[in-house]
Write a structure and sequence with these properties.
The structure holds 2 protein chains of 2 kinds.
Chain A lengths: L6 E4 L7 E6 L2 E4 L6 E4 L10 H10 L8 H4 L5 E7 L13 H15 L4 E7 L8 H8 L1 H7 L5 E3 L8 E6 L5 E5 H4 L3 E7 L8 H7 L3 H4 L5 H5 L11 H15 L4 E8 L20 H16 L2 H9 L7 E7 L1 H16 E4 L3 E9 L12 H12 L3 E2 L4 E10 L12 H10 L6 H7 L1 H5 L2 H9 L7 H8 L1 H6 L2 E5 L3 H6 L3 E3 L2 H12 L5 E5 L5 E4 L1
Parallel strand pairs in A: 2-14, 4-19, 5-6, 5-10, 6-7, 10-11, 13-20, 14-16, 14-19, 15-20, 16-17, 17-18
Antiparallel strand pairs in A: 1-4, 2-3, 8-9, 11-12
Helix pairs in contact in A: 1-3, 4-5, 7-10, 14-19
Chain B lengths: L1 E5 L3 H11 L12 E5 L10 E10 L2 H7 L21 E5 L3 E2 L5 E2 L4 E4 L15 H4 L35 E4 L3 E3 L6 H5 L1 H13 L7 E5 L3 H15 L8 E6 L2 H9 L4 E4 L3 H9 L3 E2 L6 E2 L3 E6 L4 H10 E9 L11 H5 L3 E4 L5 E4 L2 E4 H12 L5 E5 L4 H9 L8 E5 L10
Parallel strand pairs in B: 10-11, 10-15, 11-12, 15-16, 16-17, 20-21
Antiparallel strand pairs in B: 1-2, 3-4, 3-8, 3-21, 4-7, 5-6, 7-9, 13-14, 18-19
Helix pairs in contact in B: 5-6, 5-11
Chain lengths: 529, 417
Amino acid sequence: MSPRPGFVLEVDGSTPPTLFWNGEGYVLEKLPEGTRVVYAPEPHKALEDPVTAIRHALEHPLGDSPPLSALLFSGMRLTICFDDVSLPLPPMQSPDVRQLVIEAVLDAAAAAGVDDVVLVAALALHRRMTEPELRHALGDRIYEAFAPGGLLTQHDAEDPDNLIHLGVTDRGEDVELNKRAATSDLLVYVNITLVTMDGGHKSVATGLASYRSLRHHHNPQTMTHSKSFMDAPASELHSSNWRMGQLIKDSGVKVFQIETTLNTDTFPSQFAFLQKREWEWSLRDRSTFAASSAALARTPNRLARQIFHNIKAPHAMTSVQAGEVEAVHARSTANVWAQQGVAVEGQSDVLTMGLPYICPYNVNSIMNPILVACLGLGYFFNLYRGKPLVREGGVLILRHPTPPAFHPGHHPSYIDFYEQVLSQTTDPMEMSKHFEESFATDPWYIHLYRTGHAYHGVHPFYMWYWCAHALEHLGRVIVVGGDPKAVRRLGFAPASTLNDALEMATDVVGPSPSITHLHAPPILMADVQ
Amino acid sequence: MNTLVFERNLARFAAARVVSSFGSGRGAGVSPLRLVDGEAPELPGEGWHRVQPILSGICGSDLSTLDGRSSRYFEALVSFPFVPGHEIVGCVQDNATSASGEPIPAEGRVVIEPVLSCRARRISPLCPACAEGLTGDCERVAFGHIRPGLQTGFCADTGGGWSAAGLVAHESQLYAVPDELTDQDAVTVEPLACALHAALAAGLRETDVVAVIGAGTLGLLTVAAISYLGSTGRAAVPEALLVGARYAHQRKWAEELGATLALDSTQLARAVRRRRHTMAVGSESVDRLSGGADVVFDCVGSADSIEQALAMVRARGRVVLVGMPGAIRVDLAPLWHREVTLLGAYAYGTERVADARVRTFDLAIELAGALHTGRLVSATYPLDRFEEAVGHAGAAGRRGSVKVAFDLTQSTKGRPR
């Protein structure tokens, strides 16, 4: 039986309460009658033999690229770059698709007699991956073969000796990349296109870039002109990356892009209810929900966080394509839309969503208030094509505990951003003008980024910039169940209950508002007509 | 008339020390402080005048004394029994002359510069410090024709502000209060003078990053002093004035009074580090900086605050002790290693401001009028509710307050206002 497509339910008197994620936990909420609930499509069927599919893709490239084997030769410098720990979400059960793809590439390289091979985790300004994270993404065999000899590296955007300035686009955008990757005879990029924003020229132009380069598209102006950045043709973020991609190509950097897509099988069987529609919950699902909710309510936050971050998703690969960047990405994007797309008719006055425990930047870490904002206003709000799910001037209601807690090792500059920037302004333009450079060039943050496991000093700004489009679009943001001080610091309004929040929303959008609930994860993309 | 008297009583002193360990100000009831029916002290001689106090503040050094935690260093510099209260606005009872020689009519409002220096003690010739106008540094505060007492409020012969019977003050201590100052403004003049003295002693430069630890009355007034001196061109405006405050209302006040950024005390070192782009020494915490602030004002005076100051000041920087410290244990290794100057800032006297000499109290009166610092007076109490008043002062931050004072015009049981 083929998987069912996405679905928009209209709540009526017989609709059971709806699941809302709430950080390291979840709750059931009774939504008002007439509310639309948007559900993700069911997981698409996985490729039956992913290894064969990968090998087939490498030898049957898309676009004007020769097969991989034709690009490999003895004596060449080969650099294989791969997406970092921010993908996929949650981390997938072993073997990770990156492992499968890189093993195939390495087999092809070995067959061609290629000796000089270096792996690069495409961190951009993200934190360095830990050994267990690298082992999980690549498998022990690759890790043991490359790491001891220093051939498994992580992109260092602050290493002047390993950056190369390739030039400036016709819009004045600097393109500065990882030197090893850019000067290799072949750069193979291994990607996971979890959402349509991922991949394409963004893989290399962002993942292997420096601050000097990234600042041209990671800024408030670009973000407010990306409507949404999940929809490349309407995204200035992507336009900038595409211009850079063209310059990279024109500079003679040879990129062989390998993109994979995953299905929406997000949670293991013990949490199966999390990706089911509530009226289809079995007795077992209801029991699991009740038991796990009760247990989580008594579990210390730290332990609850640990439990959730140990979840490995049963994501399965639905497609793999390789070759020329744009041709590959077009196919990946189509596949992601096929899996995640849900047609939705029109906008509503209010959009509600429950935010889970994880976003791309707190894997094995803490979801701090800035990341809560980013997940809600940056990522989930932008899961649309056409128009946002909520009308301009409408209200976004998030559910998350929003504790003012930070991982001091992963997010040192976030702490200072929260205390020293958000306390003075929540305006992306203002903070960009007055604070960004100071954070970006701070030597302590740079030291921690390069030697520890810290996100770059400028990263919290980027997280806030992700929110820029939503901040401009929305009339108010309300956080249900959030720490009131933290919520206010973000510039949002706290509410104790969903009913309170809906009542507060009427101050902005008027009485009897239309409401849409985004039932994610699993991830879905709303195609709003 | 109601008068609070502090007596030498070691048993009560010890009891206050024990009780105050549960919170500053809680030991007032068991401390050597007693409410008595007192009389105004005798005039010690020529140049002395009776002053009827209107408001008299409760300051950190008072609390320290009542908590049984003040340094034994002061034992020889006070005389018992004394009437506390050295932050005083009151009325002179007869025609008087001010410290600057101006006449003050009977019933005129005055603030008292409480240091009992050579002039008040009828000492001639003046000690070298007094000869320079640096009365806060007077060498003779335990000598002369009145008993020892470094200030009014610590001397058995002068009385103090916590008495409805009044006190006596020497004309060298009197400053007329301009009409535009409220009584509340005027009662902040003494701590303002301390703050101005500290701000000027630090010799700030335009390139300085300045940190202020603590945002009680003294911390907030230090912020006000630094900002005011800068805005009136009498001192440099530092590049950044960062304030660590434990309570939200203190942060709000600090920013209103001129702080560049006021943040939770635990975040101050982080803010200094970021402003200076220096490094944090250690692992993930920011307890110690490799560089740091040019000047740190410690407006608390505890071992923790001094260690915090030493951890966030740059090499060859200055730590100014504004809050009164006691007998404490502090690791001075960073002071030695980083060649830090530890600078005491006690009281006031004469300041050199833009090549002119000016009395600190004159500056403080000007500032109190300009900023209406009386806004910081959160509550006043009659003397017979002294336990509540002292308890409130000891918990001022926690209770959303700043300055607590006695209202000597309230007969008996008024409500705090």
